[in-house]
Amino acid sequence: MERQQTLASSSSSSSSSPPAEDAWVDSYLKLLPQWQSLTSSNQPVIPIAISRVNQVDAGRLDIEMSAMLKEQMVKVFSLMKPGMLFQYEPELDAFLQFLIWRFSIWVDKPTPGNGLMNLRYRDERAIEARGKVRTGLEGPGLTVSQKLWYCVATVGGQYLWARLQSFSAFRRWGDSDQRSLARRGWFLLQRVEGLYRAASFVNVLVFLYSGRYRSLIERLLRARLVYGSPNMNRAVSFEYMNRQLVWNEFSEMLLLLLPLLNSSSMKSFLRPFSKDKSSSSAGDENLCPICQANPSIPFLALPCQHRYCYYCLRTRCSAAPSFRCSRCNEPVVAMQRHGVPVDNLAQKQ
Predict the structure, then answer these.
(1) What gap in Å lies between CA 252 and CA 49, rounded to an integer?
(2) Predicted confidence (pLDDT) at residue 157 exceeds the cutoff of 80
(3) CA–CA dist 150, 70 (Å, integer)
(4) Taking every annotated instance into account, which residue ranges of this chain make up the domain RING-type (predicted)?
(5) pTM for this one?
């Protein structure tokens, strides 16, 4: 009986004091972050790999675009005083870089090179699994602070560094007769430049390994290049570029090899394979085999005694000590004026 009375009293007391109206809301707000963390942890994370070639090509295309704009700007001032624009070249480069930044990154649009390569900047710090993950390319763009710091680093930093280098070179800070303060500033500039180049080299190695952040500025700002559209094909055809590269390499190879070839030795090497030996030797016997003209000051190549112009034969003998006759491929050991006895010959030097 006593136990039943205690149970009845407890049930009546609980029914008489219901929970507060905001208790359910407070409990919901307290448990909501834990629930969101549990649901987000179960969402799949899609690994994405952005082509390194596309990122490098995008940077190169931006440089080419800036060079094209600079060329057009220089043509505008071509009629002005020569050398005037050269004094303000760093300002011109900074102005063009600012224009590209203002009408691309600042308004959440890709740069010309990034647009051609289907790339855009994404704030890697704000990447969270939100909702349904479809491609792994989702994510917000750069924040206002990131855009401003990007402008300060790319436009202002490069301009200040170029001006500081030109000023230090003009003032000759690196000379030994300068004050100790100027020399310390010069050594400090050299040290900073060396550290920056070393850090850039390390960043390139990390970029080639991971495919993220092609420059130090992007790595510091956590601004990563990702594809703007996952289904867009490459907008640039590399067929013309590949053909141009092949011809450029071929022309450079010819420019390297042609000075090493001796035209007279090549002619003498190919002469036995010529079809009209008799006609050429009979008809051109009185002409200089080098300039194919009638010798004004005829000289004979010894010992074969073929006629040459004095200047042609002297030039070839001075250039090549082992010069051979262009007609018979005989080594020329001396030269003699036509119609002069052998005693007055001039030995080849």
Answers:
(1) 36
(2) yes
(3) 21
(4) 288-329
(5) 0.55
Name the DSSP class of 293: S
Look up residue 118 and give its two tokens: 């289907």
DSSP 3-state of 185 = helix
pLDDT at 28: 74
State the Cα–Cα distance between residues 344 and 335, nearest whole angstrom. Answer: 10
Structure tokens at 278: 């008799």
pLDDT at 4 over 90: no
The pLDDT value recorded for residue 176 is 59
Cα(169)–Cα(193) distance, rounded to whole angstroms? Answer: 14
What is the rounded distance in angstroms from the CA atom of residue 185 to the CA atom of residue 63?
Answer: 30
User: Token match 């179960």: residue?
Assistant: 42
How crowded is residue 122: how many other Cβ atoms within 10 Å of its Cβ? 21
Token output for 156: 């202002």
- 223 and 123 Cβ atoms separated by less than 8 Å: yes
**CB contact at 8 A, 133 and 45:** yes
The total number of residues shown for the chain amounts to 349
Arch. (CATH architecture) of 290-340:
2-Layer Sandwich (3.30)
Average the pLDDT over 143-158 and give the result. Answer: 92
Residue identified by tokens 């590209």 is 100
> Does residue 346 have a pLDDT over 50?
no
Domain ranges for the chain? 52-230, 290-340
Assess contact for 151 and 97: CB atoms under 8 A: no
pLDDT tens digit sequence for 239-294: 777 788 888 888 888 888 877 766 666 666 666 665 544 444 444 677 888 887 88
Q: In whole angstroms, give the CA distance from residue 349 to residue 333.
A: 9
CB-side exposure of 334: number of CA atoms within 13 Å?
Answer: 11
Residue 100: C-alpha distances to residues 69, 95, 106, 334 (Å): 10, 9, 9, 69
Mean of the per-residue pLDDT values of the chain = 77
Q: Which position has the token pair 């005829």?
A: 298
